User: Fold 4Fe-4S dicluster domain-containing protein from Methanoculleus frigidifontis.
Amino acid sequence: MKLVIDESRCKGCNLCVLVCPYTIFQEGTKPNRRGIVVPVLDRPERCTNCRLQALYGRTLCGVCQMICPDQAIHWKEEEPYEAHRVEVEY
Ligand code: SF4
Ligand code: SF4
Assistant:
């Protein structure tokens, strides 16, 4: 699972920054096209829900999603890994 902030919904209130026990949400620094400073994610793979939802079949922790007043936080399935050719130039 991958943690996602929907920038089109986020209003930059930073409530998610306050509640995450792993400080995955960090205050953003740059306004986006709408002038909203959206939080940034620090190593979101550490999120309890990202790691364990598939195993237990339900949302774990999920406090950020619960507190977000604009329903801007969700998780999405990650694409299966696709091998692709990498060329290294010397
Ligand atoms: S709580 Fe929701 S609206 Fe507020 S900054 Fe976080 S993602 Fe954006
Ligand atoms: S589900 Fe919990 S651990 Fe994961 S990002 Fe949200 S608040 Fe942090």
